[in-house]
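so the lab meeting is tmrw and i was supposed to have these ready like two days ago... anyway. pasting both below. for each one the top line is the aa sequence and the line under it is the structure tokens. i havent really looked at them closely yet so no promises
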Amino acid sequence: MRRIAMLTVLTLLAGTATSALAEGDRRRATREAPSVSAASIAAKLDALGYDVRRLKLDDGQYKVSARDRASGGLVKVRFDPANGELMRAKLDD
């Protein structure tokens, strides 16, 4: 019975490790060759009414600091460089 329990635990750990390694490979590939350019991200934000203050590719994401033209408020935004999808946006304090 202990042998079956141990094999089950080892199988689950192996599956988790494989999944984590695959995720790491995806992030590394994204960091190396973004499919969406920084200029297209800046153009997207400009069309939405934001002035980009800073845009950089870091940790496999485009990290953007921008100012809303209408209200003057600052926002921090993150985009996926593989497809240009908005990942996170929050008001900057």
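ok protien two:
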Amino acid sequence: MSLLNLMHRTLTFTPRGWSRPAALAWQWAPLVLWMLLIFTLSHQPKLNLPDAGSWDFLVKKGGHFAGYALLWLLTWRAGFRPWAAFALSVAFGLSDELHQVTIPGRTGRPLDVFIDAAGALTALRLAARLPRPR
């Protein structure tokens, strides 16, 4: 089974016989929890992340890229159309950087918004090969 097929099966899995509220929670909870995690990490006055030496920039920006690719996937899984999921992901990335400006020791960087958007766009392009989840 290819990685794309596995992704598709995971994204479209819905337990049978669940009540509507339970099914909606199954659909939306991962997205909301992921957004809360991003917000919580951004709200820390100064993240004491380990220094990866010469790889530090790549590791931290790779985290932004992967985190927002996952945000796009979870937004799409929640039922948004692909480009709406992209717009929401980028808007959340922008709001996250603006939020960081208000936190002591943190800064908001336009580069991070660009990397967040690149992660979401990459997920969109990869998922374009899959049937839309229900």
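from a quick look at the 2nd one: The CA atoms of residues 29 and 125 lie 24 Å apart. Helices lie at 3-12, 20-42, 56-77, 82-101, 110-127. will dig more after coffe
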